[in-house]
Design goal:
Elements: E1 24-25, E2 28-29, H1 35-68, H2 75-108
Antiparallel strand pairs: 1-2
Helix pairs in contact: 1-2
């Protein structure tokens, strides 16, 4: 007597791909956020970009100053690297996520 073989589920990509215009960012449904979630994600991405760019700026300034044997001024990384990058990412995220939220609100009415 032979037993039936179990059927393995198919593993793979979903049938539909999510694009940037459909409210998905890297597969995450950001188009379903409310106004508070939009603000929270925007500010969180701005803060994360500020800290990441400041860290990379400090490391690169440290390497440059070690090779030139100068005393480093690390306040440059906060003022000229971290702050502009953080504000740029914050503004970009607010515009993108705010546009998605406004479109969804206009579609409901």
């Amino acid at each position: 007597m032979t037993l039936p073989t179990p059927i393995a589920p198919k593993v793979g990509l979903p049938a539909t791909s999510h694009s940037f215009g459909a409210g998905y960012l890297f597969g995450v449904p950001v188009g379903d956020l409310g106004w508070f979630g939009t603000l929270l994600v925007s500010f969180a991405s701005g803060v994360a970009a500020f800290f990441a760019s400041t860290f990379l700026g400090i490391v690169s300034l440290l390497i440059v100053d070690m090779t030139t044997h100068r005393t480093p001024d690390f306040t440059i990384t906060y003022r000229l690297i971290g702050l502009p990058v953080g504000l740029l990412v914050l503004a970009t995220a607010l515009i993108y996520l705010g546009t998605l939220w406004v479109r969804r609100m206009l579609r409901r009415t």
